[in-house]
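Can you give me the bound-state structure? Components:
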Amino acid sequence: MRFGGDRRRAYRAVMAVLLAFLVAAVIGSIATGAAGLSPSQSLAAFFGLLRRGASATGSYPTWAPRLLLDLRLPRIVLAIVTGAGLCTAGASFQGTFRNPLAEPYLLGVSAGAALGATIAIVWRPLAALGIYTLPLLAFVGAVLAAFLVYRLATFGGHTHSASLLLSGVAVGSTLTAILSFFMVSTERDLHTVVVWLMGGLSAATWDKVYITLPVVATGFVYMMLMARRMNLLLMGEERARELGVDSQRTRRNLMIVASIVTAAAVAFSGLIGFIGLMVPHIMRLLVGPDHRRLLPASALFGALLLLLADTVARTAMAPAEIPVGIITAAVGGPFFLYLLRRRKGA
Amino acid sequence: MTGRPKARRLPAPPQLLPSQQHSVPFFPLVLLLAFVLVAATALLAAGCGSGTATTTAATATTVTSSAAGPGAADTSTTGAATGATTPTTGAAGQTAATGTFPVTIKDDDGINVTIKAKPARIVSTKPASTEILFAIGAGDRVVGVSSLDDYPPQVKNIAKVGDFEPNPEAVMGLSPDLVVSYSGYEEKLQAVQAAGAAVLTFNPVSVEGIFANITALGVATGNTGQAAALVDSLKTQIAQISAAAKATGSAPEVFYAVDNTLYTIGPNTFVDDLLKMANAVNVASMLGNNANGQQYYQYSPEQLVAADPDIILLPTSSGYKNIQEFTKDPRFAQMTAVKGGQVFLIDDTTITRPGPRIAEGLKILVKAIHPDAAL
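Here's the bound-state model for the whole set.
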């Protein structure tokens, strides 16, 4: 038997529950918002939009379908894609480096993205490239940081996860210092930088979905194809090598792909912390360490969590917004600790 | 922590082992990823690059569509026929008190915005613009403001649509035909624009700039006559106050604290302009490196002590609650202004808000700087 029957049943149950919750969250998210629409009006406008497009009319204001199409729906989709991207990247980092702390923040990837974004905001001549300057530079920053950390941690063709984390922290601190310098030396853009760093999906548009979605989806497919190798890497470098896995190459490739996915996820949403670290751990407790299950479960749970957090972010204090990173960390931290304690106690 | 699970829990039986021969091609994949990203970005950048240039056209068409909506009663005979090729006339060319539409206004972000018909539902997310709208008689058409708005008192009963940052959903929910905002939120307001609203942004850096904003809002609302009258009245008041300040014959050096870390205003700000009109010299404007348009400066305590200004102004919004917080600071004890009792706490509500009460703000500055001026 390939899998334990319990595990398979648990996996199916978890996926079914997550999917049900995600559908419910999408409906709930469509129904709520800062505009003066009641939930029933919002849903009526949504079905009108589905049937007859943005010019649909019914028991709701004429602008309601347009509002859903241009503001609420792209934001919902971007939250789902971003959440899934951050969490699959987190699961790959943790699995590849056999380290529970491996995630974009500690590996310096987020700091690289943040520095790229800050340069895009502060350095005005770049603005000529349009509103895609920021995501492109965030992307370049993340990938360069990942390469740098990887090179620094590789000695004689071997990359140890301890040295990888250490060089990640060192590179991250250095990049953060440069970022802080940019922040104190600019007055007019400080607000923009701070808002980006805090993270949020309030500027979501379909254009951003069209860029993020293909990258996250392609990255996910690649990770799924590599899932069995990640499983073997968990057994240790020696055994993986005996079993025919070029662990060095596999790790490098996965790190780069996970960095690209991270960059695509944070490029438009800013730094949304914690879920990329926490979600894979929670899912590992529920469905086990096999990446063929862990990756889809993490993607689904990450999508659900970020969508819920963002819905709270845009409705709790409307019309003001709460940075979504505050919610993910405030809710996720205690919940994660609870799971951890319960598991240890059992 | 389960990040390092025990091997026995791993599935992966031997027959499923991936072999090197069947390895997933990596670099083609990275290339594909890179290609997807670059292609998508290039496509969208091309689409958006023209976005700024075609703002006028976009606004024109969307306003046309909104004319069929609830605001149709206000639409004059300027129907769709005149639409697509609205002549671009600057705000200055439209100052005649006729208030005819369509009009095209160049806002402070340099964007030419066309307003096709007299706006009936206005959202202002900038307190200074809200004050201007009320002062030029367009207040009854304001249907949404920011949570920072506090003047005139009527704004308390108007729907709130965000703080510094407008919440696009809340704005759209009010179905406005004109949105007045701070600079830099065009992207956030794209959907609002697509739904038919003209978006104007203002960010004046001089007192003349404030007058230009008032004139532009007059053109935008059709209340050109009231706007011109307001500008004239402000110019007269400012000239009188300024003359009284000049008559004192002294031009003291002033340090104006933006916050309690010695952040201060440089040239290229309307507050610096006001200080000049109050017959004072802003010490930070003497730094000289303002070629890049820098508006604010961070002073160090040493720099401030070395500059030793005659007067130190602590605006209420700076975070200083009383002058003792500054005068009791041992670092500043030997400064001329501290020893001479020339540190003042001033209410800066009207000073830092580039709106119709700017003359009152100037008066507060002059009273603090020249207590002997004949006001």
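A couple of observations. Chain A touches chain B through 78 residues (CB under 8 Å). Chain A has one domain: 74-345.
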